[in-house]
Structures are given as C-alpha cells and as structure tokens.
Structure prediction request, 218 residues.
Amino acid sequence: MNSRVARQGIAFVLSAPSGTGKTTLAVEILERVQSLTRTISCTTRSPRQGERDGVDYTFVDQNRFFEARDAGEFLEWARVHDNYYGTPRSEIERIHGVGSDALMVIDVQGGEQVRERLEDAVMIFVLPPSPEALRQRLEGRDGADSVAGSTVNLRLRNATEEISRFLGYDYLVINDSLAEAVEELQAIVVAERCRRTCRQEMGQDILDSFRASLGDSI
Ligand code: 5GP
Prediction:
C-alpha cells in the first residue's frame, strides 16, 4: 500500500479505563504503524522503575507543572490518581513538524479537552469487554501486575464513570482479543490517513499533473 503519510498531521487520542490494556495497545500500534509518534506528557508523579525522564514522561515538580499550566503550555491537563498530567502543545508541534502523526494516550478528562480544542482530533476509546474481564485483569492472574484487592472495586467504579463518557469519542475498540484490537486500531489510523481532507494536496497535485500532461499533448 502507498505508505506516504498525510502532509497535514493528525492528532489521535487513545483513552481507556485503567487495566484495559491501553499501554500494551499503544506499544503494539506504535511498533506497527510508521510515522506515528507518542506525545511525551509532563507529570508530577515519580518515575517508576525503568522509566526515563524525557522518554516515558517529562517528570516535573508541582510548581513547574502549575507554571506551565498557567502559561498555557498544555493542550490539555488533568489530575489523575492524585498526580497531575498534561500534554504540552509543543509535543504536537514537534511531531507534526517531522511529518508524523501524534498519538496521545491520555485519560477521559484530557480527551474531552482535546476534543474541544482540536476539532480534527481523532478520538479512540478502548473498552474492556465486561466488568468480569476488567476485574480479572486488575487482580492479575500471576500477581505480578496485580492491583491490591482493596483498590480493585474503586478502579471498577472509576472505570464505570469513564466508560459512561464514550459518546465523546469517534471510535470504540473492544479489547477482548489483543490481536484484534491492535488490527482495529491500525485500521482506524490507516482510514484516517486516507481521508480526502488529509490528502487534499496530494489529490490536487495529481489533478494538476493530469491537467499538465493534457496541456503537453495538445
Ligand atoms: P500512569 O501514571 O499509570 O502512567 O498514568 C495514569 C493515567 O494518566 C493513565 O490513564 C494515563 O493515560 C493518563 N495520562 C498520562 N499522560 C496523560 C496526559 O498527558 N494527560 C492526561 N489527561 N492523562 C494522562
């Protein structure tokens, strides 16, 4: 398939309740799709083991975060689980500037702000197939990735609240089978890149070349 990327950058938003697998989905889709780059958010939370400053997140203290927020540096920001997170506008500019499309993996509060501020943003919501499936994921089969029992019910309540906001999104992906969910995400990105509005200039160039070639032959 023609792998040329739309000249006008697209901003994708990927939101999902905690435990739905959006981080895994994001990693998979970023590996498979060319010219798609994840925005690096600012956060006030501490780095987890293995996380690198400026790669996974830009880690800042609360003062710096509020300074940036008050200076209007964030396209969106939210408080999530007692920490602040925000997407710097400069991230979208950086990514679009190198001809890539941007992928924001952010919560629903942030998603709603992006929808208001970037009307062309493509909003994707990932849903768990059922409360049982989410509970199982949160509890973790082997315990390695599990969430403490006392917080599972809280996360399920939060998930219900988040899921109730899916109407603000353009696409719904049900993460039942990871492989299918990744395929659906990939299909969404490809379809969005084929939109006439994204390919307007390409279409015009082709039309111009047809007109020019007719002119030559006359
Ligand atoms: P974590 O601390 O586990 O990396 O992320 C916690 C939550 O914050 C996740 O739902 C994640 O998607 C969300 N998040 C990460 N970066 C941003 C951001 O820049 N803005 C918003 N609104 N949410 C974010």
Observations:
- Residues 20 and 128 are 5 Å apart (CA to CA).
